[in-house]
Amino acid sequence: MSDTAVDYHQMWADLGLDLKSHDALLEAVGGMYGAAYLSQENRPEGMGYLDFVMSEVHGLRVKELNDFRATGGKIVGTFCLYVPEEIIRAAGAWCVGLCAGAEFAYDEVERIMPRNTCALIKSFMGFKLGKVCPYIESADLVVGETTCDGKKKAYELLAEMHNVYVMELPQMKRDKDLAFCHSEIVELMGKVEEMTGKKVTAETLRASIKEVNDKRRALQRIAATRAADPAPISGKDALLATQVAFYDDVPRFTQSSNALADELEKRVADGVGVAPAGAPRILITGTPMALPNWKLHDIIEKSGGIVVGEEMCTGSRYYQDLVSEDSATLDEMIDDIAAKYLDINCACFTPNKGRIDDVIRMAKELGADGVIDYSLNFCGTYQIESSSVETAVQAAGLPLMRIETDYSMEDAGQLSTRVEAFLEMVR
Amino acid sequence: MRVLGLDIGSRSVDAVWLDDGVVECAAVADSGFDPASVAAAFVARGEHDALVATGYGRHVAREAFGAAVVTEIKAYALGASALFPEAAAVLDIGGQDTKVIALARGGRVADFEMNDKCAAGTGKFLEVMARALGFSLEELAGASLAADSGVQISSMCTVFAESEVTGLVHRGEDRGRIARGLHESISRRTLGALKRVGATGPLVFAGGVACNPAMVALIREGFSGEVLVPAEAQIVGAYGAALSGARSA
Fold it and tell me: pTM of the prediction?
């Protein structure tokens, strides 16, 4: 996609990737991107930056990470938004989200894991076993978290192949959980400090809190413009921005996202949209959609609907809460970070009423005509929570459809029919 | 005004021609391996002012003949409520999928559910099982009706159920009781789906499998409300598609 195509094969070989499989993967992702993204009409110009990032998805950014490592920098890979990026950056390391959004080397995965494991877990294990994720191979440390049983146990297997550290996430939100969360953050901080040889200070942490907050603020601005009818940006493009936020250079991403937000705000003022005014507006809630999982958004938007929000980890849960910037001491800042992260409403918590409140509030703010509750197969927590979400959404007067799926396209035909019928119903 | 409604399904292509809202004629043909050509033959049969396609092949019809498209859900809702204005729910068991629809006023869809991946419990399932038992589809239904009780079939997956049926035959189980068990397993699953969407009677049972008297009997027995079966259950989708064309014109 880039005009000045640089050959990164040497870098990938140095990282130990399986070049043949990796070439095939990149070609497949490029094809998916072309079909889902580049076919869209009237896209904001600001998406040019994300098109470029995607054209270099395993190229330039990986080179940046490895150039940083060559100067002694450390990379921390993560699979979950509960791992506090602020702490990692304050200790001088960079934080990147790892590949977990496509089916790869499942045959290898199924030798060590049950077939009936959620697609996200199978995917990251497949990327590792198939040697096709340059991000994990660039990561000096992978920080896992105890958000679900599947991931918890998968990290044990991953630890046999990679340097893995697991932080414990409480599953309730009481005062003692907040204190525990604080202690886990301190331990993680020690681990990263030990690796980078740099101490986190009130100054470095204050700076990284501000930096990461700025990234989240930029995403909040983009999200807010989606309340307009016609929507100034497709759901697919907005989803991509959040997905890229997990691994891109923080200040650069913030700057480009603010530029995109400027453009979107202007579009809203001028009444410019990507779908006709009155197109059925869908809010999606549920499990994360890791890059390059654009399946549901693509089906909805090719069927004439527009996705106006994502109440998910690759959505509002990632950017809606900020860390307080008012504290003076390191200890207070860690308290602020613990509080912010415990505010995220994942189905791994009990109770998790906050998520339902978020869904209803977002549906109202964004003018949604219907809600789709999306879950990866075998994600027990979200699937069980689904009925409470459905009851609440219907009580708020909106239709809801549940979808359980994975990364394969084998159900695409039936999924399209269901989505089209849902759009006909909410119209 | 003449409207052609096409329901391009996995097992059959159904056509209904409406003239000023009245059914002029209808036709059903096997999908074969090239449903688009089967549909093209219907399209070429005469003039029409509007063409609306539904079913599995609806998007192919949009590409090939510039047809407007509606989903099977909407088409069945419209078709069933035009035939039976008192209908509160629709059940359609077709060649490779099953749909249950709760209706709101005016034939609008209030809620729906459909099987999401495989052909478990559909017409295709019955075809495969009939073959495993050495029955035609008619004989399968007849044997089921004649049996006084059914064997418990535990698998709904077409592949697993076929092995299960083969196993039962080898053990010398009566074919009629197996046939009855197969119909009962589909009926249990279907009644569960109806319950999940909150379907109340009267229920319109349409689609190819509604031509199977054993299935109709079991749904009637298990459903809490009245069950209505259209005389030409297979063309309800095509009829609904045609109606949507007449409405929007």
Answer: 0.91
